[in-house]
Design a protein that fits this description.
The protein is built from 4 helices and 5 strands; from the N terminus they run βββααββαα. With about 140 residues, it is α+β, with helices and mostly antiparallel strands. The strands form 2 sheets. Strands 1-2-3 form a 3-stranded antiparallel β-sheet. It has a two-stranded antiparallel ribbon with strand order 4-5. Helix 2 (about 45-70) packs across helix 3 (about 105-120).
Length: about 140
């Protein structure tokens, strides 16, 4: 399976602007700019999208891990905070709250650790990055 998204940027890094479109159409020419990334502009930014991806992936993986251990969550809510510092993402912090009937704190902690280590977005942070570039 492959998924894709496209970014288009026009102008300088600070004064320019761009838009993001995803294969599914959930994002369709969604605006992003210097202000949406580093100030309080209206639109999205790469770090927000990484946070959403990590929160969503981890939460679904936790559901699978809990199911494999014989539990079904009534609800799982995960907030992901991405820290951008000096031009690098230095941390992805997951804060999860869940209601899981019948599970004890130790087993829940074990399942959370498994999901954190094994969701595809967590693994992405240690992945090989390849590229193709065309100057046109």
């Amino acid at each position: 399976m492959k998924r894709n998204a496209t970014a288009v940027w026009n102008g300088t890094g600070k004064e320019g602007s761009g838009h993001l479109t995803t294969q599914s159409g959930v994002l369709s020419a969604t605006q992003y700019s210097f202000n949406t990334r580093f100030a309080d502009g209206i639109g999205t930014n790469p770090e927000e999208l990484v946070a959403a991806a990590h929160a969503g992936c981890f939460t679904m993986k936790l559901s699978f891990v809990l199911n494999a251990a014989g539990f079904t969550a009534d609800a799982i809510e995960t907030r992901c905070d991405i820290t951008l510092d000096n031009g690098s993402i230095t941390e992805s912090h997951l804060n999860v709250k869940a209601t899981v009937p019948g599970i004890d704190a130790e087993k829940f902690a074990e399942c959370v650790a498994d999901a954190k280590a094994n969701c595809p977005i967590s693994k992405l942070y240690n992945t090989n990055i390849t590229h193709e570039a065309v100057l046109g």
